[in-house]
Amino acid sequence: MFVCFKGNIIKLEINPFLGLLVICSLFKATHIKTGIHYCLRRIHGFRLSNTKCMAFVELWKKLSHSNIVQLKEVFTTKAFGDNSMIFVYDYHPGCETLLSRHFSPDQSGYSDPFINDTSTPRPYSYQKNNLLRHTQNNKLPEPLIWNYIIQLTSALRVIHSSALACRSLDPTKIIINSRNRLRLSCLGVMDVVMHETNSTINHVTLIQHYQQEDLTSLGKLVLALACKSTVAVQRENMSTALDLVGRTYTPDLRNLIMYLLASQQRRSVTDLMPMIGARFYTQLDLLHQHADSLDDELSKEVQNGRLFRLMVKLSMINERPDFNMESTWSETGDRYMLKLFRDYVFHQVNEDGNPWLDMAHVVQCLNKLDVGTPEKISLISRDEQSVLVVSYAELKHCLEQSFGELANSSMLHHDLSGTTIVPE
């Protein structure tokens, strides 16, 4: 199915997978037939001895959501010299992990406020004030955190309603693009790798347990984002981190984190909707604005396509050496006006005789030709012996009539040969 040689597979990373005793490699691969790029996640040295886990794979393959990297296929291979398990996902170029976006030491000025310098012991009050000061100066905007929460809960809602669990809600397994669009990746890997260990436990009970773990992981992730520290979610730092969130952000955010971390009670992702409240509509409005901007850009491309078709028709008519046994077909009748119009649009010169390269003039003329306006223009032959005053409506009629002759002749030829084309 996929091109499996060095020239078409690019290794992106290699690392342990979420603390498990397995090594995972990431590749960019190309489909043989379609040329579409995919992301291959290889589990090293893994032998699949129980195929019951493939039922989970089928469920994941059916799951499609805007905040999920969709699983396409899972297969085993010995192409790497061992028994490897390959997970095929959609490829999203230009993304980075949530960890590298907000918790990377490579960021300018980033430091984890919960990691103390042990060489210079300080009183507890100093450390607490330093934490607060650091968070105030480097905190993430609260609307951005709610934006992440809405996207993550939207993905979890779909996953949980499909009787599945994410099990990889980790900053290293969440990718983000330049427009802060989040996607959960590595879905389905845990269900395959850890399936044999849990094969004797009731399936429904197990999924419910993992779904509760998803919500706990979400609470820890939001807490880490609010504190800009992955160390903040450690048990010994949890109380300080929650106090920091209460001092820095609104009570709504702290209450949501407290709810997600309250593992003693049964939680549901749908219960988070009242806590999100009207912020959901803000996010919805931003999405609609983005959709409008995409529509505007698409309409520009549609206009470009319309003008391109006009240029194709003109090019097929102008300078055609022979048609229906007429060697001068393109130089006579209506076609002569189209030839002069071609010079009028593309071969203008200024008063010094130099080429006049005005794109606006070209676009304006082609738009008027497409509409067929009654505006008249003067067309002058290259020897300046002929001057024609015609309207764009007349030129449009000449263009359609001349192209129609070509299309009819082409249709007749293909009908005789057993195939048919339909001119636009």
From TrEMBL:
A family per Pfam: Pan3_CK
This protein's UniProt keywords: ATP-binding, Coiled coil, Cytoplasm, mRNA processing, Nucleotide-binding
Gene3D superfamilies: 1.10.287.3700, 1.20.5.5160, Transferase(Phosphotransferase) domain 1
BP terms from Gene Ontology: mRNA processing; nuclear-transcribed mRNA poly(A) tail shortening
Highest taxon of the lineage: Eukaryota
Residue ranges occupied by any Protein kinase domain in the UniProt entry: 12-281
UniProt GO molecular function: ATP binding; poly(A) binding; protein kinase activity
Location of the protein in the cell: Cytoplasm
GO CC, alphabetical: P-body; PAN complex
Main location, first listed in the record: cytoplasm
PANTHER family registered for this protein in UniProt: DEADENYLATION COMPLEX SUBUNIT PAN3, PAN2-PAN3 DEADENYLATION COMPLEX SUBUNIT PAN3
Record's protein name: Protein kinase domain-containing protein
The species this protein was found in: Acanthoscelides obtectus
